[in-house]
């Protein structure tokens, strides 16, 4: 089968490799669509980061580069391993792409399996990836999705789960006002989850295209250009002087962080969603004087069922966020290069490893 394999910095190769075999307790999935994620771009430009370097096997997967990439994917069940009796061949599924130690409790009540030692992701730390025609995944990480949800949209459920978990961490409730700093893929999807939960969303975003996209998609009530408008004043104006109840940092840009701290109401909640490659400064006097809660969020934990429900019920339409579809052979030139050089026009580029649907 064809697979996109990461060898190292700026070295991704499309190769023919053996298709993986099902084992007891696993599910073979024919990948329909796989999204290209900012994390993949990071591995390509600045990595290896999550990918274990060649010769340094990951402690859980036992694998090192080259590894197959792709962790945001949907597909169709092709074969069931022994003991898997609650899925059927032909079912549509998405994968919660975790590589987690066998002795960690990953049951439905767990709130922290994603924070366990040596956690990594399928498609980064080994165990195959969505940028291949087929993958075999442990049943625990396979989530069925209604056939009413198109498979291309289902490929966005993974990044949507990131947004869902971030929103959950904020404790926001219906009727409140959220300020989202940045409308890249994760900012836009965070806005989508918030709007689906009847939260009023204000987005601050420099790019006009991105502002227009969240407004057109109906996932933001207001989209502000911080180069032209004083965001803090505008948020106060829109909240009768109170400030935002919750804020989401989705840019890893210092001035955005400062603005969010300023724009929050007393006892507001700030959630840091973006990955910061450097130290940031935060005005702790303001945090203290307003009794703000500042929290981080990473990936998701038991978030997929509720996220899938939001999509299946039609409360979130993922179609507006799909901005391109390509084959595996175009991964680097049409996919990575577009996202690196023209990231305003592209939100999510989907890859069809088999070429079907293009
Ligand atoms: Zn991702």
TrEMBL record:
Pfam families: ADH_N, ADH_zinc_N. It comes from the Bacteria. GO terms for molecular function: oxidoreductase activity; zinc ion binding. Signal peptide: none annotated. Gene3D superfamilies: Medium-chain alcohol dehydrogenases, catalytic domain, NAD(P)-binding Rossmann-like Domain. InterPro entries: ADH-like_C, ADH-like_N, ADH_Zn_CS, ER, GroES-like_sf, NAD(P)-bd_dom_sf. Keywords: Metal-binding, Oxidoreductase, Zinc. Its cofactor is Zn(2+). PROSITE patterns: ADH_ZINC. Residues 8-351 form the Enoyl reductase (ER) domain. The keyword Metal-binding applies. Belongs to the zinc-containing alcohol dehydrogenase family. This is 2,3-butanediol dehydrogenase. It comes from Pseudoclavibacter chungangensis. The lineage of its organism: Bacteria, Bacillati, Actinomycetota, Actinomycetes, Micrococcales.
């Amino acid at each position: 089968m064809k697979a996109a394999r990461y060898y190292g910095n700026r070295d991704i190769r499309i190769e023919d490799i053996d298709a993986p075999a099902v084992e007891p307790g696993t599910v073979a999935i024919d990948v329909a669509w796989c999204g290209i994620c900012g994390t993949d771009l990071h591995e390509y430009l600045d990595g290896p980061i999550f990918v274990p370097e060649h010769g340094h096997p990951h402690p859980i997967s036992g694998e090192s580069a080259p590894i197959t990439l792709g962790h945001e994917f949907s597909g169709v069940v092709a074969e069931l391993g022994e003991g898997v009796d609650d899925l059927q061949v032909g079912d549509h599924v998405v994968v919660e792409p975790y590589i987690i130690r066998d002795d960690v409790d990953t049951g439905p009540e767990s709130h922290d399996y994603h924070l366990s030692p040596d956690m990594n992701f399928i498609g980064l730390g080994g165990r195959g990836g969505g940028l291949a025609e087929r993958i075999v995944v442990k049943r625990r990480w396979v989530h069925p999705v209604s056939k009413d949800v198109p498979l291309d949209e289902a490929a966005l459920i993974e990044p949507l789960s990131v947004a869902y978990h971030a929103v959950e961490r904020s404790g926001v409730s219906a009727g409140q006002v959220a300020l989202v700093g940045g409308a890249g893929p994760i900012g836009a999807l965070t806005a989508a989850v918030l709007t689906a939960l009847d939260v009023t969303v204000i987005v601050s975003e420099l790019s006009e295209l991105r502002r227009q996209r969240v407004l057109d998609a109906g996932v933001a009530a207001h989209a502000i250009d911080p180069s032209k408008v004083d965001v803090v004043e505008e948020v106060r104006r829109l909240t009768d002087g109170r400030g935002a109840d919750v804020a989401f940092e989705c840019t890893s840009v210092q001035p955005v962080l400062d603005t969010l701290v300023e724009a929050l109401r007393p006892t507001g909640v700030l959630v840091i969603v973006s990955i910061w490659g450097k130290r940031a400064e935060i005005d702790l006097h303001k945090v203290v004087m307003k009794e703000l809660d500042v929290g981080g969020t990473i990936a998701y934990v038991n978030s997929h069922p509720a996220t899938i429900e939001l999509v299946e019920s039609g409360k979130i339409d993922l179609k507006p966020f799909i901005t391109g579809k390509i084959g595996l052979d175009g991964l680097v030139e049409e996919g990575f290069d577009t996202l690196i050089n023209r990231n305003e026009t592209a939100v999510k580029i989907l890859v069809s490893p088999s070429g079907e649907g293009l």
